[in-house]
Amino acid sequence: MASWPTGVAVVTSIWQGNPIGCTVNTLMSWSVEPPLVAVALNSAGQTLQAVRVSGRFGISILDWARQDLCSRFSRGAQRDRFTNVDLLGTEDVPLLRDSLHALACTVQKTFSCADHTLVLGSPSRIYGTGRETPLVLHGRAFHRLPRAGEAAPGEVLDSSLARSSLRVDTPSAS
């Protein structure tokens, strides 16, 4: 699957009063009406356990400049993953402030398959940072896409995609 380009995100939740999270690249828009997203989590992982108990999770879509967060949240002790990471502490779901977009979600349904569980969530809030350069993984390496709205030479942009009815907020500096 290394030949399939994918975005990178961090899924977060709360476990025993502390933030918990992991890196994922299985993330998709499930439906527009109602707005639903899906993410695949390791069935034996601590993050899925926290998501199931709390019924809530966050998705922080990583910006190109935050490759370090991809690596940090993919390995090592949970207690170290959030060290010196600024959070948006909204709705009892930790979200990474320094991300492209962040969604606070409520679990709607889960589906177990093999060693992963697909978690279907309803976003209650979406935050946008104004950054538009997503972190992309392809061929086991990070890649940078052009900023949204900027076409490569000879490329035609299609702006006809439907937008969700959810409002996108820009987090305030704290």
Question: What's the layout of helices and strands?
Answer:
Blueprint: E1 6-7, E2 9-15, E3 18-24, E4 27-31, E5 36-42, H1 46-54, E6 56-61, H2 67-72, H3 78-81, E7 87-90, E8 93-96, E9 101-113, E10 116-128, E11 135-138, E12 141-144, E13 168-169
Parallel strand pairs: 10-13
Antiparallel strand pairs: 1-11, 2-3, 2-6, 4-5, 5-10, 6-9, 7-8, 9-10, 11-12
Please explain how this structure is put together.
This protein is mainly beta and 174 residues long. The chain contains 3 helices and 13 strands, in the order βββββαβααβββββββ. The strands form 3 sheets. Strands 2, 3, 4, 5, 6, 9, 10 and 13 form an 8-stranded mixed sheet that branches. The protein has a 3-stranded antiparallel sheet with strand order 1-11-12, with no helix packed on it. Strand 7 and strand 8 form a beta hairpin.
Biggest β-sheet strands, sense, barrel: 8 strands, mixed
Shape: globular
The topology string of helices and strands comes to: EEEEEHEHHEEEEEEE
The rounded Rg comes to: 16 Å
How far apart the termini lie comes to 40 Å
- Assign the structural class, choosing from mainly alpha, mainly beta, alpha/beta, alpha+beta, or little secondary structure: mainly beta
Strand content: 35-45%
What portion of residues is helical? Answer: 10-25%
Low-confidence stretches: 159-164
**What is the number of helical segments per DSSP (H or I, 4+ residues)?**
3
The tally of strands reads: 13
Mean pLDDT across all amino acids: 84
